[in-house]
Amino acid sequence: MTKVIALANQKGGVGKTTTAVNLGIGLAADGKKVLLVDADAQGNLTDSLGFHEPDNLSVSLATLLAKTMLEESYEAREGILHHHEGVDLMPGNIELSAVEVSLVNTMSRETILRSYIDSVKADYDYVLIDCMPSLGMLTINALAAADSVIIPVQAHYLPAKGMTQLLQTIARVRRQINPKLVLDGVLLTMVDSRTKFAKDISFILRRDYGDKLRVFNTEIPLSVRAAETSAKGKSIYVHDPDGKAAEAYAAFTKEVQSIGSERRHARQHQTDHSR
Ligand SMILES: Nc1ncnc2c1ncn2[C@@H]1O[C@H](COP(=O)(O)OP(=O)(O)OP(=O)(O)O)[C@@H](O)[C@H]1O
Ligand SMILES: [Mg+2]
After folding, report:
1. Which ligand 1 atom sits nearest the alpha carbon of residue 132?
2. Which segments constitute the AAA domain (predicted)?
3. Which of 41, 149, 223, 243 has a C-alpha 20 to 30 A away from that of 172?
């Protein structure tokens, strides 16, 4: 069973892309087959894995979404790149902006990305979708394609208002398009250990959005080394293997995998009882 996870937050610069890279490569290091999907016209995920235009980007997510909209066929693994740390990438670039505009007038406009992902996901244990900082059509498409959402939140900002909007959007997608969508939780990023903001934010999130909202135990520390990785084309595990950020992303990777087994147990428990 493939698990499709969207990394979403319409607030910019909260660590979505950095988390996509280091969760993806962390999962690959644990022996999982992983596809990263760059669903952001900024193409940061593609860049930060070291793939720069115009080399080998003649086919990108925009190309394949356009073909999907036009019901044109494409090769099964067309455009998929491989990064030497063990993950595959469907690259994204500025052409996604045009695709997002044309989605508006397309039939099944919310499920074009899902159709694409459904066509490739059989090869993977995990598909991680790096969303853009907006709640536009591409993010809706990512939520429609996903089994679950992880929301990275920068620990020194009160996420109050934007968070409500995001949770409402997730709930609406669940009601109208994708009933199986669940919220895996909030990941606190760029946590400065000298302050106690992270604790306050966990408290406020739970107070305002309910005890059921999971805030991951792992917090990603503020780390210059983590910020450097995007320019290096490598993960934190290679760039600074003994640092705190590498340790945190490895722990977060384990936590994400344990959610999968928790849910399987819960379902097993349910079926056992309904027999
Ligand atoms: N743990 C960290 N400590 C310090 N800097 C970080 C950390 N994680 C990410 N950064 C830096 O913060 C910036 C924003 O991170 P990132 O690009 O991952 O966020 P994003 O949510 O994907 O942004 P956008 O909304 O623009 O897509 C980047 O310059 C990144 O290198
Ligand atoms: Mg990003």
Report:
1. 27
2. 2-181
3. 41
